[in-house]
Amino acid sequence: MDTLTLRIHRPWTDSFDDLEGRTRLHRERALMLHAMADQLKLPVLDWGDTDNQYPREVVEIVLQIASAVIATQISEFLTRWWKERKVRNVEIVTPAGSSYSLSDLTNEEFEQLSFHLWQSRQRQTDPPSRA
Questions:
Q1: Residues sharing a CB contact under 8 Å with residue 12, sequence separation 6 or more, in sequence order
Q2: DSSP category for residue 86
């Protein structure tokens, strides 16, 4: 199965000295990520610093992806969060190492990402061809 790495940037606070605000945003992001994983029944291989007590600007999680449909559902969650300004930026790293940033991801790139994951999954599940 393929893995997909998500790097989720939290929104900035007005001041770096606002530890309470940074901590609140860090916790909100953790709740959103856990809710997405629960709702989509995603196997999370690594939560990174998601549940760390100290607020991080960026957290990275590694998901096990079984199909392009799941990848599309994840991208819908992320797009909604970005549009609602609940996250500042999301980077998506494909199994091949290609990286996309949600802040400038086009619809075409979303489709390419989903197709890539589907294609990668097919290569793993298709029986070898006999020549």
A1: 88
A2: S
Distance CA(89)–CA(114), nearest Å, equals 19
> What are the backbone angles phi and psi of residue 103, rounded to the nearest 5°?
-65, -20
Residues ≥6 apart with Cβ < 8 Å to 45: 3, 62, 63, 64
- 4, 93 Cβ separation under 8 angstroms: yes
The tens digit of pLDDT for each residue in 3-39 reads 888 888 888 777 778 899 999 989 999 999 999 999 9
- Residue 90 pLDDT: 79
Positive or negative, the Cα torsion across 127, 73, 95, 61?
A: negative
If DSSP codes are grouped into helix, strand and coil, which group holds residue 112? helix
Distance of CA 64 to CAs 27, 43, 70, 118, 128, Å?
23, 5, 10, 13, 23
- Provide the β-strand partners of residue 46: 62
